[in-house]
Design goal:
The chain is α+β, with helices and mostly antiparallel strands. The protein is built from 7 helices and 7 strands; from the N terminus they run αβββαβαβαββααα. A 7-stranded mixed beta sheet has the order 3-2-1-4-7-6-5, sandwiched between helices. Strand 1 (about 60-65) and strand 2 form a beta hairpin. It is globular.
C-alpha cells in the first residue's frame, strides 16, 4: 500500500517523558516513524485551529497493510509518535499497543473504499456540526463545494459512534466524495495526503459557515448541474495538478 505521509517534526511533551513506550519492545522503521510523526502533527494542528474542540475528532493515514490512527481519549497536546496505533486491515492491533480511536472502523472502511486516498481527518468543527445536526448537506451554493469532488457535500445518516453501521454510512458517503457530514456527529474528509485531508476539512468547515450565513438571508441561489460540471472539469487542471500529471 502507498504510504502517503510527510516528513515533519514533533516534540515530546514533558508530561510523557520517562513513560514506557508502547513500541519499546520492537524496532520501528524510518518510514513508520515519519508516518507516526505526521499523524501527531496533523492531529495537533487540527486541534489548534479549532476544528475539533477538547479530545473530539481523530486522524489516520494508510500504512503498510493497514493504517496508523490516533489513540482513544488522549489529550492532543500530550501525544507522541509512539502513541499512534497501528490497526491492520482485519482490525487487529499489536499486543501492547494503545487502544485505537473509537472511530477506527470508519477510518479503515474509508481507506478500503477509496484506495486512491491515504489519509482521513474526522472533526467536530462548529459549523459543519450545526448542519449535520439538521441532517442537511451542503449544496452547490458556491463553486468551491466541488473541492470535495462533486456537486454537493452529503450528510450521511446517524449511527452511534464506533459502530459498524456508522462505518458503512461513512464509507458510502465517501465513495464518490472526499468529504461528508455525519448526522448529529461531525464531518470527515479524506485526501491523498494528510495535508490534503486537513486542508479539505478546513475548507468544508468554512463552506459550512458560509452556507449558514446565506441561509439567514433566505433561500440560496444554487449553481445548476451544468455549471457545477464545468467547475469540476476546471478543477482537474487547477493549480499544479495539470503540470504534475504531464511530468
Amino acid at each position: 500500500m502507498a504510504k502517503a505521509v510527510r516528513a515533519t517534526r514533533a516534540t515530546v511533551p514533558a508530561s510523557t517523558r520517562g513513560k514506557r513506550s508502547p513500541l519499546a519492545n520492537r524496532r520501528v522503521s524510518a518510514d513508520e516513524r515519519r508516518a507516526r510523526l505526521a499523524v501527531v502533527e496533523t492531529t495537533q494542528i487540527m486541534s489548534a485551529i479549532g476544528l475539533s474542540p477538547g479530545r473530539s475528532g481523530n486522524v489516520s493515514c494508510r500504512f503498510d497493510t493497514g493504517m496508523l490512527i490516533t489513540p482513544s481519549g488522549m489529550a492532543y497536546d500530550t501525544l507522541t509518535p509512539d502513541d499512534m496505533v497501528f490497526v491492520d486491515a482485519d482490525g487487529s492491533v499489536p499486543q501492547g499497543a494503545r487502544k485505537p480511536s473509537s472511530e477506527w472502523q470508519f477510518h479503515l472502511a474509508a481507506l478500503k473504499r477509496r484506495p486512491d486516498r491515504h489519509a482521513v481527518v474526522h472533526t467536530h468543527s462548529r459549523h459543519a456540526l450545526i448542519l449535520a445536526c439538521r441532517h442537511e448537506p451542503i449544496p452547490a451554493f458556491h463553486y468551491m463545494v466541488a473541492a470535495a469532488g462533486g456537486v454537493d457535500i452529503p450528510c450521511v445518516p446517524y449511527a452511534i459512534f464506533g459502530s459498524a453501521e456508522l462505518s458503512d454510512h461513512v464509507a458510502n458517503g465517501l465513495t464518490e466524495r472526499d468529504a461528508c457530514l455525519m448526522a448529529n456527529h461531525g464531518m470527515t474528509a479524506i485526501g491523498e495526503t494528510l495535508d490534503a485531508a486537513l486542508e479539505l476539512a478546513r475548507d468544508v468547515e468554512e463552506l459550512a459557515a458560509q452556507y449558514i450565513g446565506v441561509l439567514q438571508l433566505g433561500k440560496p441561489k444554487r449553481l445548476n448541474a451544468k455549471q457545477m460540471a464545468e467547475v469540476l472539469e476546471r478543477f482537474k487542471g487547477y493549480g499544479q495538478r495539470a503540470q504534475t500529471a504531464e511530468a
